[in-house]
Design goal:
195 residues; alpha/beta; Rossmann fold; 7-stranded mixed β-sheet; two-stranded antiparallel ribbon; 32% strand
């Protein structure tokens, strides 16, 4: 079985093109098997993007676990910021690069196993984290983010209540100032500020 968080998905490549509307803007993405949500923008990511206050997004931004690129591309398109985007999945990296060209944005895309290739600090780390990797790896992603955030930098994430949102919020409060920005059909958009 091949998963979207594998370095090299074994599923046969079958690229498709999807049109996605986010906040009344149209985007075109090429997706593929072996990447997250290949048939279009998933509800969690949409909820996260629609909850972001783009006017407040300044400085350096990291899209962690970028998949085929919707988060980083949307932010770059609407802010003009050069966004760093990473994923462990080589197929996701290839698709993100294609989609950045397709949507005419300037972003830095690179492969990284968690933070192994991250050498900067950020004002925002934004993610729809890979819940299926299990709690140990998920918590590594969420708590190690602190080391890559500037003072008062923010980790934004979306998680479903059925996937442990309330526990994650409680645990994040040990390390961050946590605010639930919105809830939509069981999805919680969470902002965790580094202090």
């Amino acid at each position: 079985m091949s998963y979207y968080y594998d370095k090299n998905p074994s599923s046969a490549s079958q690229e498709i093109e999807v049109m996605v509307k986010i906040n009344n803007q149209l985007y075109k993405f090429i997706t593929d098997s072996g990447v997250f949500s290949k048939h279009g923008l998933d509800f969690g990511t949409r909820t996260l993007l629609e909850a972001l206050n783009l006017d407040k997004i300044k400085g350096k931004v990291l899209d962690f676990g970028c998949g085929y690129g919707p988060i980083g591309i949307y932010i770059s398109k609407n802010t003009g910021i050069v966004v760093d985007m990473l994923d462990i999945n080589e197929r996701s990296i290839r698709l993100s690069k294609k989609n950045a060209r397709l949507n005419d944005v300037d972003v830095n895309i690179f492969a990284s196993d968690k933070y192994s290739n991250v050498y900067s600090k950020y004002d925002f780390i934004i993610t729809n984290p890979p819940i299926r990797v299990g709690k140990k790896v998920l918590y590594e992603i969420l708590f190690k983010a602190k080391e890559y955030l500037n003072d008062n930098g923010q980790l934004w994430l979306v998680i479903n209540k059925n996937q442990g949102a309330k526990t994650v919020i409680k645990d994040l409060e040990n390390e961050y100032i946590v605010e639930v920005i919105c809830k939509n059909k069981g999805f919680y958009v969470i902002c965790a500020t580094n202090h």
